[in-house]
Design a protein that fits this description.
By secondary structure, the protein is α/β, with parallel strands linked by helices. It has one domain: Metallo-beta-lactamase, Chain A. The chain contains six helices and 14 strands. Helix 4 runs antiparallel to helix 6.
Length: 200
């Protein structure tokens, strides 16, 4: 499986991924020009969550190639909502996701729901790779102090991640890749930190 990565959304340096030149994950601002320059015709847009730096070019990509948008149902409202004083171009989802499996072309994609950073934050498992958005980064986790974030949900998601059954390579929404086993070692620290912040 070929995975191309391109940083988008300016200073936010959001990772936009392109799988086998077919499936786009998190097309932030600048993704449309990148994809057009590659000469590809994407067949699906997967949003790990609805924050503006991950969904900014949803509409342009969808309109140009008639590419359907997939997002968890609990984050669909963010596609049309101002965020932190920023209003992304409004886009309409074509498929509202739940935890489970979906099939796009010849790809079996497992959707793992990890709320906390947003209500509908998911990770997409494709082959031996896990695209985690802003849930898990290399050496860190997503923030829980944004509107619609929930520290208690993040704790539950981290506990769930501790039982993740496979050691997949992690492709996060920002920063460098990692892997499940490496990041599992850090999870107890993040859980304790969030629990202590709740007590204050």
């Amino acid at each position: 499986m070929e995975i191309l990565t391109h940083p988008v959304s300016g200073v936010y340096q959001t990772n936009c991924y392109l799988i086998d030149r077919k499936i786009v994950i998190d097309p932030g601002e600048g993704a449309y020009e990148w994809l057009k320059g590659l000469g590809v015709k994407p067949i699906a847009i997967l949003n790990t969550h609805g924050h503006f730096d991950h969904i900014w070019d949803n509409k342009r990509v969808k309109n140009h190639w008639n590419t359907p948008i997939y997002i968890h149902r609990k984050d669909a409202f963010l596609l049309t909502k101002p965020q932190l004083g920023i209003t992304p171009p409004s886009s309409t989802p074509d498929s509202l996701l739940e935890e489970g499996e979906i099939y796009i072309d010849n790809y079996r994609i497992k959707v793992h729901h990890f709320p906390g950073h947003t209500p509908g934050q998911v990770a997409f498992e494709i082959g031996d790779s896990l695209f985690t958005g802003d849930f898990i980064f290399k050496g860190s986790i997503g923030r829980t102090d944004f509107p619609y974030s929930n520290p208690r949900q993040m704790i539950s998601s981290l506990q769930k991640f501790l039982h993740f059954p496979r050691n997949l390579k992690i492709y996060p929404g920002h920063g460098e890749p990692s892997d499940v086993v490496t990041e599992k070692r850090r999870i107890p620290f993040w859980i304790e930190l969030l629990e202590n912040e709740e007590i204050r």
